[in-house]
Amino acid sequence: MKPFIYDYTLDQLQDWMKENGEPAFRAGQLFDWLYVKRVKQFEEMTNLPKELRQKLDDQFAFVTLTEITKLESKDGTVKYLFGLHDNHAIETVVMRHNYGNSICVTTQVGCRIGCTFCASTLGGLKRNLTAGEIVAQVVTAQQMLDATGERISSIVIMGSGEPFENYDATMAFLRTMIHEKGLNIGQRHITVSTSGIVPSIYKFTEENTQINLAISIHAPNDALRSKLMPVNRRYPFEDVMESLRHYIAKTGRRVTFEYALIGGVNDQPEHAQELADVLKGLLCHVNLIPVNHVPERKYVRTSRDEIFEFARVLERNNINVTIRREQGHDIAAACGQLRAKHMESTAR
Questions:
Q1: pTM
Q2: Annotated catalytic residue: which of 22, 44, 91, 284?
Q3: What CATH number does residue 308 fall under?
């Protein structure tokens, strides 16, 4: 299979041009066609010589994302199930806020982390996405928004998969997204979320970016976290916390802790107090997420009163906390749900 053109950063495209006897500035023109004009084939790139367009067409492919399903919520959220070239499927979600449009992208087909409350892990990990397949989710969504003059202004890497287990592709994707000659999305408007892949957290610390880091924590101690997140047995709670303390000390940037509240499991005031004790003194913020019901999982949602009590305990301990506003609740918004339904119907 030909490599995807979206797999290449601007620097890599400049190298390719030089290797193929073309002036380096052609890479900038190509980049503009891909990310500013957002054309879908090389033939449309009219300021490139015809021979170069043919060469590009011979050597590269555009990522083809086939729309399998598109669900639109009453709140404006749009969830896509896209088919890939090898018959796998991925989810991408576009969310509308009063401050702009955000997109939640996927980095892997499936997931091997094994969080017991998440639909993404059903069926395990099939493969990593290439950088270009992650890029294509944003470009495709932006092409659809172009029709109404809207723009994607922020990105969350919180879809299916663990981005820090597909580290190089994730970073190549990010470099393309933030490039001033491309989509030019502000670094502080991008958040990458990890379940706690400790070596990659240290690696990310050295990237010298302004991109936000979020950690899926979901428990205040080793024993409970290992039950909910098997990855904790590979990278124990204290090792994860130590890597985050290092990140904060080195970068001066705040970490967001994502905490899915699960009825009767991790949502009691004593859990909140234990979490506050762990986080005390850290430059951080806690985002409480009422867990979505997944039919294949046994967990139930935390009651409204208990959610607010959990938040109050954190606030009394001077921990910054918010409760995530639910979006797309009426369209199988939980990560992996739409793909899981598709896998089930395909199997039948």
A1: 0.92
A2: 91
A3: 3.20.20.70
